[in-house]
Write a structure and sequence with these properties.
Helix content: 40-55%
CATH superfamily of the largest domain: PAS domain
Shape: elongated
Strand order of the largest sheet: 5-4-8-7-6
Distance between the termini: 80 Å
Order of helices and strands: EHHEEHHHEEHHHHEHEEHHHHHHH
Strand content: 15-25%
CATH class of the largest domain: Alpha Beta
CATH topology of the largest domain: Beta-Lactamase
CATH architecture of the largest domain: 2-Layer Sandwich
Length: 331
Amino acid sequence: MEYITIKEASKKWHIGTRIITFYCTQGRIRGATKRGNLWLIPNHVERPSDKRRKSDVILKREKDQNEVASDNSNGLDEIVLTLRNNTDVFAQIFKLIPFPLTISIPDGTIVFANDAFLEFSRVTNTDDFFGKYNVFIHSDLDGWGIRDLMTRAFKGEKVFAPNLKVPRQEIAQKMSGNDEPLIDTLYHDINAFPIHDNHGKLNYVISVFTMTREYRGKDEIVKGKEYIDNHWQEAFNMDKLATAVHMSKYHYLQKFKEYLGITPYDYYQDVKIAKIKEKLRETNLSITQVFDDCGVDYNKGFARVFKRKTGMTPSEYRFQIVGNSATQAHT
């Protein structure tokens, strides 16, 4: 029996490679078989019927059968019914979600990625990517520290990896072969969750990347900012910072201020104040406790730094953000 590839089937049937891959994974192409990461389709098989669009009559009958409320003022039921029968709309929704997103089949092979992910990973030729890139084979999950997490996701468990340093340069090189240097360092929260069919069988795993931090600029500046961000609860120590970036204190101080317009200590104070602001929303904590949790003593001057940089005392800031209920927390 002669076989053709998905790309050849796309030219033969005049439909996109993505939808053909979807048909293969759903078993809608008779005789299609997977060899490694490659789908092979019998040359003689006919193009599968397009069940994505249904006539208005069928839609109306299904609407009646499902007892869709006719008085639904916002038309939500009709929208849901339309989406259920139109995979093109679903594809567009996934495609345009502003966070990088991938959809993989149970063996780890990526069969879909939205525009945000393709831009993030610099993939331009999707024919060489979809159905060929496998997250377990081609990604350094051990180096990222998430192999166990992703294995659990592909066994049907919803998982979450917070604040993960994402090696974008490595991802771009492996996924697209693009070796052009990248000057940004990114941290993401990664959510991976399974999609099961009506019988509980795992069909897909969706992974969503939500950026939490971004660094741009020279390597030594990025490393310094990362060090401060990761040690913000400790007392500021210029010696340790200089050691972390492998430069002298004096030279690094000059370079940091030249590049960012502030000193490393100013940046440290800004990070500390941002953390204090977050904690002040927790009205079960007194302001003294907030400062203690953030590694500073409320009575030793940092309250004045807070007011100088924000224009408000910690109490005034808490009152403005969370209202009168916060005034019961004592300083």
